[in-house]
Amino acid sequence: MSLPSSVHLHQADALSISSLSCAFQSIRKHGKVDLIVSSLGALPVFEWKGGLKPRLQAGLERICADGTKNLLDVMRDSTAHTPALIVVSSNGIGHESLERLPWILRVFYHHLLTYPHADKHEMEELLHRAYGLHSNDFNPSAKSSSERSAALFDPSKLLIVRPSLLTSGARTGKYRISEAGSTLDSAWTISREDVGHFIAESINESAGEAEPNALKRSGAYVVSY
What we know:
Elements: H1 17-27, E1 35-38, E2 44-45, E3 55-56, H2 63-78, E4 84-88, H3 95-99, H4 103-112, H5 114-131, H6 145-149, E5 158-163, E6 165-167, E7 176-177, E8 189-191, H7 192-201, E9 219-224
Parallel strand pairs: 1-4, 4-5, 5-9, 6-8
Antiparallel strand pairs: 2-3, 7-9
Protein name: FLAVIN REDUCTASE-RELATED
């Protein structure tokens, strides 16, 4: 598939802050960076010695936590204008959302996604602290005004997407989303294409000098059928 002339591809290593910084410098030659969408992750590896809890690929055990930390550092140090950020996480990471999962999914997540979810849990802790967002699971201390004032970034410029179990189905545009910071009951599955649809629908296409925020919504949302 050919790309339009307005699309510029820049390759970088999320685990290398120097690589990310160089990529940002190259990207900014084309104009201001208004929005970043991050969907870091790695495939689990099954090993007999690992039992029913597959680990992440060697060298990528902390891809979400360390990659996101590097991204936040580069955003803070390398951009005069702080872009909005959309991060794809997962439902069922925090205690509250895990308890509201269908019991079969709770068993599945516990045995097969222990290590990927531990990585994403640390990623969400980083994001909640950096943006001063309160969460009983990820940043309970942010209730205090001093904690919120110490945030590095504007919380209105962060959207955390927590999809339920991902499938390869077609886009329907018909799905449920939670209220910001809450969760959903009976959150079974969602297709990757519908997650992409939700992300696209959350972007403020008219963002500019008069309306600098590229997001229509902010906070953390569960997305599921």
